[in-house]
């Protein structure tokens, strides 16, 4: 997720923690944020609009008053864009229009993110700080350690499988 969005491991793991409180899995969050990130970087706008029959990412962002590029045409930092979107969601009345906006930005089925976005940026930032204090928001070193642990577990599992194969062959 961090590689897709350019956000920090701490921010992404914090978002996983926040959205989990609203019943959104890490996999669902990854899918939704991948779509938003691709849209921000101009990789999906016309195709997504044609497939989903919506007015498209750029038009939706314009209607929200959220800039996703700098004046130089570069993509703004992902979390800045996400927080701006959250502020607009917090100000927008619930209903079909809000659901359509979520779909245009995050893809089909994005209604599951609305409760999180409705918090607005300030509440989301506070929850990210809480996640860090609780130790559920992981830093880069934590992520690297978890990757090493996962690789070690895979190696151990493969070694046990190999040992089982040798024992079976010996019998």
Can you offer a commentary on this structure?
71% of the residues lie in helices and 0% in strands. With 171 residues, it is mostly helical.
Enumerate the spans where pLDDT stays under 50 for 5 or more consecutive residues: none
| Secondary structure tally, helices | 10
Q: What is the N-to-C succession of helices and strands?
A: HHHHHHHHHH
Question: Pairing-aware structural class of the strands and helices?
Answer: mainly alpha
Distance between the termini: 46 Å
Rg (C-alpha, Å): 20 Å
What does the overall shape look like?
A: elongated
SSE inventory with pairings:
Blueprint: H1 2-5, H2 9-20, H3 26-40, H4 45-52, H5 57-64, H6 78-91, H7 96-106, H8 114-117, H9 120-134, H10 140-170
Features:
mainly alpha, single chain, 171 residues
Summarize the structure in short.
This protein is mainly α and 171 residues long.
